[in-house]
């Protein structure tokens, strides 16, 4: 997994690089939001670890720009801010996960492996806050009986995606191509009028889908 780090705290970045470089490829390190947007174009990382409070352009604005240009890039917010309004802004901008910097080293690594497995990593308790906000903001028609707006194949795809399976694995299980899985997910997003993958998964959980959890490497705490 190719990772870019966007953070203006030099000592933290040095420690993070030392932590990750044995298991992941660090392709770039930047200290401003503007640099993050530019380097994402050049280095094409798989994952960006994005801080929020950076000069020139904050991490949420940078996330929005990067996702608009390269939607396949997974942006994981790694920040000190635990406020729920900032969390929701980050998810709306296109972030696929949100981890706090005070987590133990092994938890950060576990979060990256979860991301590789197709899951959305969040610090403890934050997933519940997202679901609460989602329920509060969703129209009643989206919360009640909305599964009938999706056809059988879309529900099958969404159920597996919400379990955390990558698109390629979903395709193998349903005997369809990865491209077809992406096509179904795009249609689901449009039908439900949601903004990004994290919101789709939150909607699926809220409607009883994705109960099973796929096997994924677990980093044992020492």
Describe the 3D structure.
The structure is a single chain. With 222 residues, this protein is of the alpha/beta class. Helices cover 52% and strands 11% of the residues. It has two domains: 2-131, Rossmann fold, CATH 3.40.50.2300; 139-206, Winged helix-like DNA-binding domain superfamily/Winged helix DNA-binding domain (Arc Repressor Mutant, subunit A). The chain is built from eleven helices and five strands. It has a five-stranded parallel sheet with strand order 2-1-3-4-5, with helices on both faces. Helix 3 (59-69) packs parallel to helix 4 (84-93), helix 6 (126-137) packs across helix 11 and helix 9 (167-174) crosses helix 10. It is globular, with a radius of gyration of 17 Å. Residues 139-144 and 217-222 have low confidence and may be disordered.
Give a summary of the structure in a few sentences.
The protein is an alpha/beta fold and 222 residues long. It has helices at residues 10-20, 33-43, 59-69, 84-93, 105-116, 126-137, 140-143, 152-162, 167-174, 178-192, 197-206; strands at residues 2-6, 25-30, 47-50, 74-79, 97-100.
């Amino acid at each position: 997994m190719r990772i870019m780090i966007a953070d203006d705290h030099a000592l933290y970045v040095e420690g993070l690089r030392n932590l990750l470089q044995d298991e992941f490829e660090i392709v770039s390190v930047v200290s401003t939001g503007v640099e993050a947007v530019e380097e994402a174009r050049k280095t094409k990382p798989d994952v960006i670890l994005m801080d929020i409070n950076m000069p020139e352009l904050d991490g949420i604005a940078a996330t929005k720009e990067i996702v608009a240009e390269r939607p396949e890039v997974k942006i994981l917010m790694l920040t000190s801010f635990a406020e729920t309004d900032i969390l929701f802004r980050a998810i709306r901008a296109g972030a696929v996960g949100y981890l706090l910097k005070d987590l133990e080293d092994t938890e950060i690594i576990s979060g990256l492996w979860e991301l590789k497995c197709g899951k959305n990593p969040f610090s403890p308790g934050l997933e519940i806050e997202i679901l609460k906000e989602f329920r509060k903001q969703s129209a009643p028609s989206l919360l009640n009986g909305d599964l009938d707006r999706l056809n059988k194949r879309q529900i099958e795809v969404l159920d597996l995606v919400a379990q955390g399976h990558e698109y390629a694995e979903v395709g193998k299980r349903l005997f369809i191509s990865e491209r077809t899985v992406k096509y179904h997910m795009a249609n689901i997003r449009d039908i439900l009028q949601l903004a990004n993958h994290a919101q789709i998964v939150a909607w699926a959980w809220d409607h009883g889908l994705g109960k099973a959890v796929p096997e994924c490497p677990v980093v044992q705490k020492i």
